[in-house]
Amino acid sequence: MRWPAFLRLSPRWAPYVFISPFLLLFAVFGVFPLLFSLYLAFQSWEPTSGLDAMEYVGLANFAFALEDEWFWKSLKNTAWLALASGVPQHLVAIPLAVFIHTSFKRLRDGVIGAYFLPYITSTVAIAIMFSSLFSTDFGLVNAGLQALFGIDNIDWLGKPENIKPAIAFIVFWRYIGFNMVLYLAALQTIPKDLYEAATMDGAGRLQQFFHITLPSLKPMIFFGVTLSVIGGLQLFEEPFILTGGKGGADQSAMTSAVYLYRMAFDFNDFGGASAMSWLLFVVVALMTWLTNRAFRPRGQS
Amino acid sequence: MTRERLAPWAAYCIVGAGALIMLAPFYFMFVFATQSRANIFNLPPPLWFGDDLLANLKILTERLPFWRNLGWSLYVALASTALTLLFCSMGGYAFALMEFRFKKALFTLVMATMLLPSFMSMIPTFMIMDALGWIDQHRALYIPGAASAFGIFLMRQFAATAVPKELVEAARMDGCGEFAIYWRIVLPLLKPALGTLGLITFIASWNNFIGPLIVMRSLDNYTLPLALRTLQSPVNTEWGALMTGSAIATIPLLILFAVSSRQLIAGLTAGAVK
Question: Would you say residue B220 has pLDDT above 50?
Fold first, then answer.
């Protein structure tokens, strides 16, 4: 179909027309609000009082956050959850991927599907499901534990020390398949002759795993762990749903993201919440950088 | 080739047991969906389907405008997918195959935002939606997402390898208009990436909880995750109905997954293994 000449897009302007929808949205909904939140971090503002209620307070919001007991507590909770759910994810995903890679030919797609399914389902539906499974007197987890190991009912959701492991398990359950799929993809790029040569040299399976498989997986481990760190530090939905939006007994399940939400929408302190989000950003950036250093491939600097 | 193997049955057992643990919550979600609240919170808990499905549905639709919420979820997910595919494919095509000023800087900026933690946008999103008057409107859910950094990254990577520059040049020299080149030549070549991005966007939108949590205000406008959550209460949770609602909310995803899992997984890992 030929457009009339004055409407036809010239190659000179085409690039700008093609990227402008994206860039417009990006600027309006991505960049601008972010900058505004940086500005807000230095103001004291309760949104219900209207825009002119903003009052410049300098670094007061930051100072408050740094002295806030809940800020540090939620940070600790977040770090604990990120580690407790993240480390097992990779420790278990790698051997799982190796098993499936070497031993499963026929049922492979089905098995991968089963493990990947938790990743794509609604966190809310799953969190609701688990809150019933973890119920103290009637939950299936306790029923199973009692039947298999004779353990008495554990109060998962009520006791501060129990709710974190429960959440960690749910997050682990959700992401193990995702990481396994990543490792499976990486395993497929390792040339088979490496293993054959090693076998001919007399190397056992375990040796091959530690000397061939693991080193070859390093880039993917780096990628996966970075994702887990960044994801773990942002945990919101599981703690939020399992504690009814409040953070649990003694704030034991309040992650930084949950506290941020509460500060902005329960306590209506937009200035304080903005400052907190920027502080948290620094923490996340730091953790990402540290992960980078720890896993940096040799030979690069 | 002889290689020591862990006895195959051990591998099968471990992996199989793990798969069962992965699937168990889904199984019980569907089982509980057919049981009344009294039965669910009973000793021993039900392990097989009951016949309270219709009763649960009744409670569900009494407590919530459930089908409305379902409709909203579908509407937002479809709109989100359509917009995202359009804008990201246009942008990805431009970044991959066209030259323009600040191209590199812009792309780096977009990529940088992928590193931002998601909670950074909690407050900014609310503020801009409030300023635009979009609070409690569904466009607040599907319009911002169309500028997905991940989406444009995926599209650009794919376009760079799947669309031959010479083809575009030849079409241009033949007098083909720019938009026609995009629509008739580039887009068909981008189909696999469009499929993957479409799936990812749909699933993410369907499951999105924090977005609606921040912008939606009235129950009639809620999407499914938000609506289901309102059934939770410290004392009077209607568990049977809640499970039924959750199960229904999960079914479209299960269908999508059954149909497209291989493409979804392949598309996701193609970006990761580079």
Answer: yes
Q: Is A47 on the interface with B (CB under 8 A)?
A: yes
B12, B90, B110 ranked by CB distance to A103: nearest: B12
- Residue A230: closest CA among chain B residues belongs to which residue? B117
Q: How many helices (H) and strands (E) does chain A have?
A: 14, 2
A207 lies within 8 A of chain B by CB: no
Please check whether residue A169 touches B, CB under 8 A: no
Contact B146, B84 (CB under 8 A): yes
Residue B1 in this model has a pLDDT that exceeds 80 = no
CA distance A119 to B264: 12
pLDDT in tens, B54-90: 888 888 888 889 999 999 999 999 999 999 999 999 9
The CATH code for residues B64-230 is 1.10.3720.10
CA B205 to CA A215: how far, in whole Å? 37
What's the gap between Cα A221 and its chain centre? 15
Q: Does A128 touch chain B (CB under 8 A)?
A: yes
Q: How far apart are CA A201 and CA A208, in angstroms?
A: 11
Q: What is the pLDDT of residue B208?
A: 92
pLDDT in tens, A89-132: 999 999 889 888 887 777 888 888 899 999 988 888 898 889 88
The structural domains of chain A, with segments of one domain joined by +, span 14-61, 63-295
Residues in B touching A177 (Cβ below 8 Å): 22
Domain boundaries, chain B: 64-230
CA of B94 vs chain A CAs: smallest distance (Å):
5
Q: Indicate the pLDDT class of residue A41, thresholds 50, 70 and 90.
A: confident
Q: Which residue of B has its CA nearest to A190?
A: B273
Q: How many residues does chain A have?
A: 301
Evaluate whether the domain defined by A63-295 bears CATH number 1.10.3720.10.
yes
Tell which residue, B74, B250, B221, B64, has the closest CA to residue B140: B221
Asked if pLDDT for residue A171 goes beyond 90, the answer is yes
Question: What pTM was estimated for this model as a whole?
Answer: 0.87
Nearest to B210 among A30, A236, A264 (CB): A236
pLDDT tens digit sequence for B97-107: 888 888 889 88
Nearest alpha-carbon partner for A220 in A254, A186, A189, A195: A186
The answer to ipTM > 0.95 is no
Q: What whole-number distance in Å separates Cα of residue B49 and Cα of residue B33?
A: 8
